[in-house]
Fold these 2 entries.
Entry 1:
Amino acid sequence: MIIRKLDNGATCSIRERNDLNSVTVSVWIRAGAAYEDDRTRGIAHFLEHMMFNGTENYPPGYIDREVEFLGGEINAATSYDFTYYYVNLPYEHGERAVELLSELVLHPLFTEEMVEKERPIVLEEIARSKDNPQEVFIETFMEKLYRKAPYRYPILGFEETVSTFTAEDVKGFYEKFYTPDRITVSIAGKVNTEAMFELVEEKFGTFERSSKVDEPEVEEAITPAEKFEVKHPAVAVPNLIFGWRLPPCSREDVYFEILDSLLSSGRSSILYQRLRETGIAYAAYSNYQNLLFGSNFFIAVITDRLKESEKAVREVVEEVVSISEEEFEFAKAKLLKGEIFGRESGEAEADAIGYALTVMRDPDYYRKFFEDLKKANFKTFRERISFLLEEPLIGVLRPVF
């Protein structure tokens, strides 16, 4: 992996992979739902939609059609801390991928006509999310877990905010956050590194834009020890969630990833053995969500035996905080092999590198993951997972009847 700063301050990373016959070009922006205010909830995601509605040089739909004609795919995603756009193409079209993405990201058009075209589409997404009990449940969980951090608001926003967006609003968000210092071009695949750097400099290194951004406030890692309940008519089987608020993401994330591996990676995992194999639950899993202004860890269970499942999860937590060093090393090994397997994909590498450079602003978050994992020690692990001894936020998702 080679990383360079472009003339205007944007970042470019290239991971040359001659074992592949494809290339992934992705453009990452340090701007997601976390950077919105009360009037603009949902605008980062709305902007992502708007970016595919034509550019200064191409009419709507042209870029999508050309990518598909060349045998590839193009898409985008909005999260809390970032937005990214990517193209996967056969390697011989790698330079064209750079050209098309630079046009898409740097030269969009914002018209009221396009806002009105996208508005009902996004409003329908919001309506569909309300019909999905799991989405409603997780959104409620995030709202209860965070009291200050912007993660307490849904990425899609609200009907009342999305209904008011104008082309000027969308353009304003774009110009404030899509600046060189917040942009990373991450490329992985079969490419000529130097030729690709030259093209990226030409396409991404010449535009100038700057703005002052106040980063959101970091929320303390204090879990609200409360219980909440959500009822939804579409629920077939009740759900349980146990959540803890954690510090902002960092290189220490490796310990939470080991915990996740220990709890829910494969049939040998503790949650599978204690809840799934015993028939207490239909499914049980954990998840570490690494976020800039306060991360979280949760355990989720799908079960119609709620009291037994809550008791079982509490027993699992007690078991985990007192595991043996042998079990710790086994979880590390599983995580290591999974990461090695995951990095076989050029798309996965481009994504992981883009995240490290854009969100973490630390290439070692990706580059030294294996080193950090191998160095992870049992004593520190026990200290880092001591948050499990705190009373969690507990949520229940039930049918209405």
Entry 2:
Amino acid sequence: MIKKIMVAVAMIIGVAAPAFAEGQNHRVAFHVDQNDPQLMNMTLNNVQNVSKYYESVGDTVEIEVVAYGPGLHMLRADTSPVSDRIATISLELDNVTFAACGNTHRNMEAKSGNAVTLLDEAEMVPSGVVQLVMLQEQGWAYIRP
């Protein structure tokens, strides 16, 4: 009801109200660059809450979690403290993707001298920072928990 009233007020005063349009699609990028389980869990809580909220108001949302630097541990098969949550979220929410920084991955492999395996849910991107820039240039909202 409030949403409809706000749209009506916006129309009366002659301003666009894209944030109140029914059925709107939102795109949100979450940034993780710390090897901190509390931060990773907070990010995943935010991902679930954002998805649930937009579904409850009849909107859709695309969400991408971008991990780089020490935050890549979130998506490493051997060190992720949240791998079970990521697997569950990926099964429950088809609107969430996880992007792993290729630069960080390459550096971690070089430093350890071993292959670094990522979670099945992770997709490698050339650069986490560049990925965030590209998403923002395409109109994605940027969230750094």
